[in-house]
Design a protein that fits this description.
Gyrase A, domain 2, 6 strands, 2 domains
Length: 173
């Protein structure tokens, strides 16, 4: 390997000596320009580009960091949320049962509650289910609902009343 390198070096020196002083000067200038272009392309331009983009990337990272901290705070709040006892959940559900009409009933079935409805207004049912999930930590796991025919006291949307009858099975906390 060193012998081959010595051969190439001697050939380069021979070629260099065969050139006129003007050609040597032009080749030297070309080599310097090539070295400067390589230094700019590989060393300076990427560093300058990174330096110019740094404030924008820093702002993006700050925004991401703030969002992550907010998500962490929400997760911590959810972890620290008081767990509701089964008895408290049932009390909450029973105390708000009147919102579903006079014929709504709750029946305990082991680990679940069955909610029986007759002519319950749809908006009230939707709101009650959302609040039951939020306040009593219950979730519907089964629903058997039927749309009811219009009655004189039912709230209506257009010509059709929004009433539901049937049952829902709720999972307790």
């Amino acid at each position: 390997m060193t012998r081959r390198l010595q051969t190439l070096s001697s050939q380069a020196q021979t070629l260099w000596q065969q050139r006129s002083p003007r050609e040597r000067w032009l080749l030297g200038v070309a080599a310097v320009l090539l070295a400067l272009a390589l230094l700019w392309t590989v060393g300076l331009a990427p560093a300058l580009r990174t330096w110019q983009e740094a404030p924008i990337k820093q702002a993006q990272l700050d925004t991401q960091n703030q969002q992550m901290r907010q998500l962490q705070a929400q997760a911590d709040a959810l972890k620290q949320a008081q767990t509701l006892s089964r008895r408290d959940a049932i009390q909450w559900l029973e105390s708000h049962l009147s919102e579903l009409g006079p014929k709504a009933q709750l029946t305990a079935q082991g680990e679940h509650l069955r909610l029986s409805l007759q002519a319950a207004p749809a908006p009230a049912l939707a709101q009650w289910l959302a609040q039951a999930r939020e306040q009593a930590h219950t979730r519907p796991i089964q629903a058997q609902l039927q749309h009811n025919a219009p009655t004189a006291t039912a709230p209506t949307t257009g010509d059709k009343p929004l009433l539901w009858s049937g049952s829902l099975l709720l999972r307790l906390p």
